[in-house]
Design goal:
homodimer, about 325 residues, 434 Repressor (Amino-terminal Domain), Rossmann fold, 3 domains, 12 strands, about 45% helix, about 15% strand, DNA-binding, transcription (chains A, B), HTH_LacI (chains A, B)
DNA sequence: AAATGATTTCGAAGCGCTTCGACACCTGAC
DNA sequence: GTCAGGTGTCGAAGCGCTTCGAAATCATTT
């Protein structure tokens, strides 16, 4: 059972090879009768174009690379949703997905790009000072990043709008009548590194609080229980009237709840808590939260990449955060 | 910056194109001096072979498809470890990985296979009566399955040796002096479907128990708390002297512990519990367990697939289970 | 010195597809 | 009846690589 080639289809339909190609690609007008004859032959013979030959001739592989950080510490449900959404969306655009792990590093990216194996790249979890970013800049292949590196100039990035997320949390607490609120953010070092998303959440939170005339503080937050507990204690010592807390640190959120319990402050009776974290974590603890929209991130990232493949300019985009109200705020 | 082709390398090194090809593939002897000259040119020019052209000429894409069940209900850590291991191992064999989701179904498989986009396929979580299995059988491309379908004849499958796993659990309990033990397995319907792995665990468990002259029973086990609780109650009513329980049902294991607690039986003081489940679940509950060796599964699956790609015959293999002793048995 | 055989290198023929320019045919306008 | 301008189709030239057979080179042997 030799594999069926376009020449077989052409012979079977009694037309030229190029005609078959044009029917399939739609790049030139073909009469309805010829078109139908060709399509019938395709069906009858079970023809599938050879991807390699197509890529070679057209300089388009119809494959995108998905570079995932398959290391420990990632939130798996988020990663999975993202990957699933990328694959599904890519298929809608008639593209396949080549899976790469971040630990091949820049070389892996250079390799797949230079080999014309993929037409574009999707990188998840880009770090602030990522060694791959300069490479992406002068790669011929377009790329889209999930997350913003330190200097996003000239790159296409997709991320949750953390400024708005911070603001939405503050607004939610304000609307519930809280007058004194706090943000527990990432560990201090993260701010010192100038990590964009942590800083932006903070700015949005404080701006909205100021706007609404609330008393607000924002403090970094470590991730071990003891450190979290003492930070929470310090916070309430300094601000006894505090009734609303936003936690933007998925590793610390459980500890914050524990610390509150230890201090004898009930949630939501005494203190309302809003988290900015993956949905599974918030769901488990029944927390009001702003989730990480993994599926939407994947979809938008692919959409942007496809636009770039078509030569369209594509700027970065920020996704609108959405608050899910659960049982930790009142 | 036109991309560098093999012709550029040949010109730069002052040799024929075919010589460059042979240097790179090692398929013919090339003198050391020529070889070095070519390799230098490759380095200087930054040459990377065009994957499409290579695939077209050699009929080898150097890509394998990884078909994952990206639906809910999978144990994510297991899936991730598996995927990571597959990608890493494939790279060792100079192959890349095309990521597909099971929801494209047989058509997706047919598509990538017929388009010569991949040389082989890796399917995870194959179901007992999987519609893709007959397809795989008469596909030209070799494939490896994780898990055993109803009829594995002529297929290459990799899985944990559940017969041994059942036996190891029984043996562990026997060594600790337990004389009356039970296996809580998959829900009844799973056995009725004739699912291989559930039945094999059961057989291994009972055989080992008989061997060691223990009193052993094996019962199916549902997955809601109430059903589990009543099953556990019935079990202990019927066998008051029961002191060892093996749970082979990752969804039920938490409920079993709860039910035991409700019956006033302490673990491990009154009852020893061994689980056959993903490591994260056992780790969380500090259970002695036989884990699902995701990483090893990935590695072995790729190894088998590569063997088949080289035309070697490859039978199915069963991985040796390993017991991790934690705090639930004594 | 010629012949033999190994060893190393070369040239050319594809692999299956896309795409460009050209050709054939058909309209309708003059 | 001729010619301009569409349509629809074809043929051929690659795309960049692998691989086969043959040529060229060199060391041995007779």
């Amino acid at each position: 059972m030799r594999t069926v080639t376009i020449a077989d289809v052409a012979r079977h339909a009694g037309v030229a090879v190029s005609t078959v190609s044009y029917v399939l690609s739609g790049k030139r007008a073909i009469s309805a009768t010829t078109r139908q004859r060709v399509l019938d032959s395709v069906r009858v013979l079970g023809y599938h174009p050879n991807a390699g030959a197509r890529a070679l001739a057209s300089k388009r592989a119809n494959v995108i690379a998905l570079v995932l950080p398959l290391r420990a510490g990632m939130n798996l449900p988020v990663l999975m949703q993202f990957a699933t959404s990328v694959v599904a969306t890519a298929r809608q655009y008639d593209h396949d997905v080549l899976l790469m792990t971040a630990d091949e590093g820049p070389d892996g990216i250079r390799r797949v790009a230079a080999s014309a194996m993929v037409d574009g790249l999707l990188l998840m979890d880009v770090e602030v000072r990522d060694t791959r970013v300069p490479l992406l800049r002068d790669l011929a292949e377009p790329s889209v990043l999930i997350g913003f590196p330190a200097d996003a100039e000239g790159l296409t990035c997709v991320d949750l709008d953390f400024h708005r997320a911070g603001a939405i949390c503050a607004a939610h607490l304000a609307e519930r009548g809280h007058r004194e609120i706090a943000l527990l953010g990432a560990p201090g070092v993260v701010y010192e590194r100038g990590t964009g998303f942590a800083e932006r959440t903070r700015a949005g939170f404080l701006a909205e609080a100021t706007e609404r005339d609330l008393h607000a503080v924002a403090v970094p937050c470590a991730e071990t229980y003891d450190e979290v507990a003492s930070a929470v204690k310090l916070l309430f010592d300094a601000h006894p009237g505090l009734t609303g807390v936003v936690v933007h640190n998925e590793a610390a959120v459980g500890h914050v709840l524990g610390a509150l319990r230890a201090l004898g402050r009930a949630v939501p009776e005494d203190v309302s808590v809003v988290a900015i974290c993956p949905d599974d974590i918030a769901e488990r603890a029944r927390l009001t939260s702003v989730l990480i929209p993994a599926e939407e991130l994947g979809r938008e990232a692919v959409r942007l990449l496809m636009a770039k493949l078509d030569g369209l300019p594509a700027g970065s985009i920020l996704l609108e955060p959405r608050l899910t109200i659960r049982e930790s705020t009142r």
